[in-house]
Amino acid sequence: MNMIVAADNNWAIGNRNELLIRIPNDHRHFREETAGKIVVLGRKTLATFPQGMPLGNRINIVLSRNADYKVKGATVVHSIDELMKELEPYNSEDIYIIGGESVYRQMLPYCNVVHVTRIDHEYAADAYFPNLDADNEWEITADSDEQTYFDIAYEFVKYERKKK
Questions:
Q1: Is the pTM of this model over 0.85?
Q2: Which site from 4, 74, 81, 86 is most exposed, i.e. has the minimal number of CB atoms within 10 Å?
Q3: Beta strand ranges found along the chain (DSSP E)
């Protein structure tokens, strides 16, 4: 299973249910990486999408503890066990966990690849991704050249869980 996230130097990923910054090339990278795949996200993350609607050209699975929560165009599950059952028919390489913080933290143990857009900046934030650089289970296996969006530098970094 994969994760895909944009994080700043402090591994911050959001503030007040919003992304820290919107970088067009990061959005393009996200679209290319997840198109035609299965995306798993939380209810609050879905609410940040245009009109709060699921992403097109993907199978959307929303994890929410609210038993009454429903959303057109997505499957809603209410526990990790229910999510894992829902994901069984799919190739794990085609599954992308896309946020937010609580879903990332719950699903990290099940993932072997994390695609991180590392943003060279520190933002005010209230949501964070686990620091993979401080976790010796993870190693960087690929990274892009540094790119810039106005005065903000960023790069695409691929982390993979070390083989045991």
A1: yes
A2: 81
A3: 2-7, 12-15, 18-19, 38-42, 59-63, 75-77, 95-97, 113-119, 127-128, 138-143, 147-149, 152-161
